[in-house]
Fold this sequence. Notes:
38% of the residues lie in helices and 23% in strands. The chain has ten helices and 15 strands. The radius of gyration is 19 Å and the shape is globular.
Amino acid sequence: MAAHTRWTRLLEILSDQGHLDVLDAAERLGCSAATVRRDLDELARQNLLTRTRGGAVVSAVAYDLPLRYKAARKADEKQRIARAAAELIPAGSTVGLNGGTTTSEVARELALRPEPPGGGVALTVVTNAINIANELAVRPQVKIVVTGGVARPNSYELVGPLVDSVLRTLALDCTILGVDAVHPRFGAATHDESEAGANRALAECAGKVIVVADSSKLGRRAFAQVCETSAVSVLVTDRDAPEDVVEEFTGLGIDVLRV
């Protein structure tokens, strides 16, 4: 198992349990205790956890993992979700994308859109995610609009009042939102309030909101609400989505796609 994969798995375990034992982690990852200790030392150096005697505990920043550590989580599911979400976007649309691993996959799917006959723009993407803007800027068939704002290192998202000042002047056909949690009663949410504010602005200027979230995020709550459940038109998730939670969403009039 590659070091980056081990680090991601260790942070996942720590996020779920709040603490981690070296011997238990070594057994779960199928590697030596010495390897786990070195991994924990490196993650502590990056301020992603706090080392303890015999293990580690969650630190302030481990609750919201940096994007580079989230990328390996449910990667196959996210690619399927992204493909299905991209297929919902008609040619010529103006679409909003926030930051995150799933929306980054959506951006890659949208980048495959062919140039219209005779040239021109296949679609317009408005985003506050600088990594998405970087990937799409080289695609001549995609018009990219980037909001202003202050970059947040964990997610590569621009946040703050500059985001609102740009988005309040725009009208989008739809916005595709990646979230940390989506609950039938409490809506879509994220761990960081500044991200939630920027993502809310993207949702409010769109005619339609599509939430992309793997099954691990369904029925869960996070700190800061992005939008109420009633604002969501479509939820795209994976086949492991719990049936009872899906039924709650569909009962609220949300179209749920399990891919």
